[in-house]
Structures are given as C-alpha cells and as structure tokens.
Automatic annotation (TrEMBL):
UniProt family annotation: Belongs to the plant self-incompatibility (S1) protein family.
GO cellular component: extracellular region
Keywords assigned by UniProt, alphabetized: Secreted, Self-incompatibility, Signal
Protein's name in the database: S-protein homolog
Length: 135
C-alpha cells in the first residue's frame, strides 16, 4: 500500500495540470467591446446573457463599454445587447459562436455610429455595418 501513495499523488497532480491546460486553452477568455462612435450623443448599452444581466450603462462619445467572460465548453455562450440613443435603438447578439470567426481571437469590437452598428472584421481589418437603428 505504501508504494501506491506516490503514484496516486502523481495521478492527482497530472489531473490538476491537465485541467489547468484545458481551462487555459479551450475555455478562452473573450472580451466584447461596445464603442460609442456617435457624433455627439450618449449611447445606452444594456447587455445580458441567459444567466447574467450586465445592467444599463451610459457611454459617452468615443468611450467604450466592455466585459470579459470565459467561453463554456460547448461554446454556447450568448450575449445580447440593446443599444439605444436619441436616434433609435437596436437589439442584437453581441456574442455567439458564429460571430467569433469575424472577431479577433479574444476581442469582439462593436461600434455604434449615427447610421448603425458595425463589427470590426479582423480578416479585413475594417468595420462592417451589421445593423441599422430601429426608430
Ligand atoms: C431597447 O431600449 C429601448 C430604449 O430604452 C427600448 O425602447 C426598447 O424596447 C429596448 N428593446 C429591447 C428588446 O429591450
């Protein structure tokens, strides 16, 4: 029995190491940014997931609101946001796995402008319009 102990300890250590590896790679951290690129109005940002309500935030011109989260194993993480200002409002999915391809490795950048909401497409390094404001 005495010789079993170091072996067991080694096994436990191995499992711990493996889990750290996994959580550092598969469960990557992601940051979603919502930038106020409006000319002169404050932007209200209200984002939520199934489990978390991130609350309502007023963002000044050229400022941003951002949050960070870990992707879950199934990559089923979903955050939706409602952006609103004097010129309109729009509800959309700010993070879901399908968007990831277009985002940077660890950052999704949304930018609200007077004519709509843009996503920064890393492949082309440009902001592309994804949504228009609803009145
Ligand atoms: C988004 O916010 C606007 C302004 O507060 C509101 O009128 C609209 O109903 C909201 N939309 C959703 C889907 O929550």
């Amino acid at each position: 029995m005495r010789t079993m102990k170091p072996c067991l300890l080694f096994l436990v250590l191995l499992i711990c190491l493996c889990q750290t590896q996994i959580s550092n790679s598969i469960f990557d951290k992601m940051r979603v940014h919502v930038i106020n690129g409006l000319t002169k109005e404050t932007l209200n940002v209200h984002c939520q997931s199934k489990d978390d309500d991130l609350g309502s935030h007023d963002v000044s011109v050229n400022e941003e609101y951002s949050w960070k989260f870990r992707l879950n194993f199934w990559d089923s993480t979903l955050f939706f946001c409602n952006l609103s200002w004097k010129g309109g409002h729009k509800s959309f999915d700010a993070y879901r796995s399908a968007i990831t391809d277009e985002c940077e490795e660890s950052d999704c950048r949304w930018r609200a402008t007077d004519d709509g909401i843009y996503l920064f497409i890393i492949k082309h390094k440009v902001y592309v319009q994804k949504y228009k404001w609803e009145p």
